[in-house]
Amino acid sequence: MNYLAHIFLSGSNRKVQLGNFVGDAVKGSSYKKYPPDMAKGIQLHRAIDDYTDHHPAVCEVVHRLKPEFGRYSGVLLDIYFDYLLASRFESFSGVSLRKYTRTFYLSLLLNYRYLPLRFKRFIWHFILTDRLRKYATLNGVRESLNIMVEYHHIDISVDKAIRYLEEHDEELFAVFRPFFIELQKFCTEYRHNYESQL
User: Which UniProt keywords apply (predicted)?
Assistant: First the structure.
């Protein structure tokens, strides 16, 4: 799962969303240094990644991508899944992607002081380029992949990756939709169990 999915799966608590958003940048037990709801979001981020990485449907798609994209198949599938969510966002959320992302961007600015340094360095560019909404279009996905290739040295052909998504959109969505509904239930139960332990 990529940024948009992690935020959406956090529920309505802004601090939990924020923690889930920055989860990759927080290692080990250092999540305990953050406000309690952010710490919950960081832990939820890890639970989502673990659930996703071991889900049979996800493993099957990664296996299918391997001949074309090798060891970056899992990274690419995260991007594909955010596209599938973003391009059909209102059907999952009941609100427009524009309204949802604007509210989250405001939350980011209001809680800027809590962001890890790595996020503080790029967050203004992230907001001003409306990165979350870019996932809803193939051109936006292309931009994101170009950034990953340039700055993270991921060795994939962006043209090939976009072509695959274009040609297999419906096929991928047929896997994504039931998987994501299961994942939403998992996250709801996870958040409920966390609250009941407080």
Answer: Hydrolase, Lipid biosynthesis, Lipid metabolism
pLDDT at 198: 47
Neighbouring residues of 157: CB distance < 8 A, sequence distance ≥ 6: none
pLDDT tens for residues 80-127? Answer: 999 999 999 999 999 999 999 999 999 999 999 999 988 998 899 899
Report yes or no on 127 lying in a domain: yes
Query: 3-state SS of 32-78?
Result: HHCCHHHHHHHHHHHHHHHHHHCCHHHHHHHHHHHHHHHHHHHHHHH
* Residue 29 is assigned to a structural domain of this protein: no
User: What value, to the nearest 5°, has the Cα angle with vertex 85 and ends 84 and 90?
Assistant: 125
- 145 within some domain: yes
pLDDT in tens, 136-145: 999 999 998 9
